[in-house]
Design goal:
Number of helices: 9
Order of helices and strands: HEEEEEEEEHEEEEEHHHHHHH
CATH topology of the largest domain: Immunoglobulin-like
Largest sheet: 6 strands, mixed
Helix content: 40-55%
Oligomer: single chain
CATH class of the largest domain: Mainly Beta
Structural class: alpha+beta
Mean pLDDT: 86
Strand content: 15-25%
CATH architecture of the largest domain: Sandwich
Distance between the termini: 61 Å
């Protein structure tokens, strides 16, 4: 083969690969979703990011991981201010971490934007009274380098308002619970959060009260503390099965279940219970996915 023929063949192969990659890139859709678009200050803002294969062939793409340079979420307020990601990646990019998307299938993650992007005290980011978006309007969009090219989502909008009336009183209780926690007064903090959970089931802060109580015990290694935290996580799932907050709640239970002596059989029972009680919900899908990790015999 002469030099010109070799060059021509290389060019043709390169163009073919480029066209294939471009075609795959066109088949990938990055979509953002919010369960609602109006929030009160300190209320969690859960963003669902989905990568969808709209084509007819399976595609392997990078996983939706934060914080890595190939996946970015950009939040701006109405004045154009950008809220950067609070944490930097501690590991290098790993393009081998991938997921296979079947035709017309999707991969998604749910992210609470407040701990990662809102302004506040750096070391207290899971305490939403210390990390929150001020009242105003915001837009959020995402970009993702899939490995085949870059895809960009449409922007979605949400607004944040100051709590009023009964919600103001519930917010004040959250602030009080946070103060107790920072003063290492665990029992009064838990009691205050329990009062919200028990007396304000219709409040926009009800989910956050569960989360704040769950994280109250996060760094406690005693079985007693973790039993309280895991019980709170499961109570959140049962009380708000349609909430995106159930995803971190189930993750918490799965991560800490060994600290409270849960066996694979116990975990299968819990996951099966979630499937039975809350069918056709996102948490049921997560429970099913987790259930597949556990074999029927130990």
């Amino acid at each position: 083969m002469n030099r010109f023929s070799s060059f021509a063949l290389t060019l043709v192969l390169t163009l073919a690969v480029s066209r294939h990659a471009a075609a795959q890139d066109q088949d990938l859709l990055l979509r953002l979703g919010l369960s609602k678009h109006q929030y009160v200050v300190s209320e969690p803002v859960f963003l669902r990011t989905s990568l969808i294969n709209t084509g007819d062939s399976a595609i392997s793409v990078r996983r939706l991981y934060l914080p890595h340079g190939y996946f970015n979420i950009v939040i701006n307020n109405s004045s154009g201010k950008t809220f950067p990601l609070a944490y930097e990646a501690t590991t290098a990019r790993d393009s081998t971490r991938s997921v296979k998307l079947e035709p017309h299938d999707s991969a998604s993650i749910v992210i609470d934007l407040l701990p990662l992007y809102a302004e506040g005290e750096q070391i207290l980011r899971k305490m939403h009274t210390k990390t929150f978006f001020d009242p105003g309007s915001y837009t959020v969009r995402a970009t993702f380098e899939t490995g085949h090219g870059k895809t960009v989502s449409r922007a979605v909008r949400f607004s944040v308002a100051a709590p009023q009336g009964a919600e103001r009183r519930v917010c004040d209780l959250l602030v009080r619970a946070a103060k107790f926690q920072l003063d290492q007064q665990e029992a009064p903090a838990a009691s205050t959060l329990d009062s919200i959970i028990r007396n304000s089931p219709k409040s926009a802060y009800h989910v956050q009260a569960f989360l704040q109580k769950m994280y109250l015990y996060e760094y406690k290694e005693t079985p007693e503390a973790q039993r309280k935290a895991c019980a709170t996580a499961l109570a959140l799932i049962d009380t708000h099965p349609a909430s995106e907050a159930t995803i971190p709640a189930l993750s918490y239970f799965m991560i800490h279940s060994d600290q409270i002596g849960k066996t694979p059989k116990d975990i299968r029972k819990t996951l099966s219970s979630i499937l039975r009680k809350h069918p056709d919900t996102r948490i049921a899908k997560e429970a099913y996915r987790a259930l597949k990790l556990y074999h029927s015999d130990e």
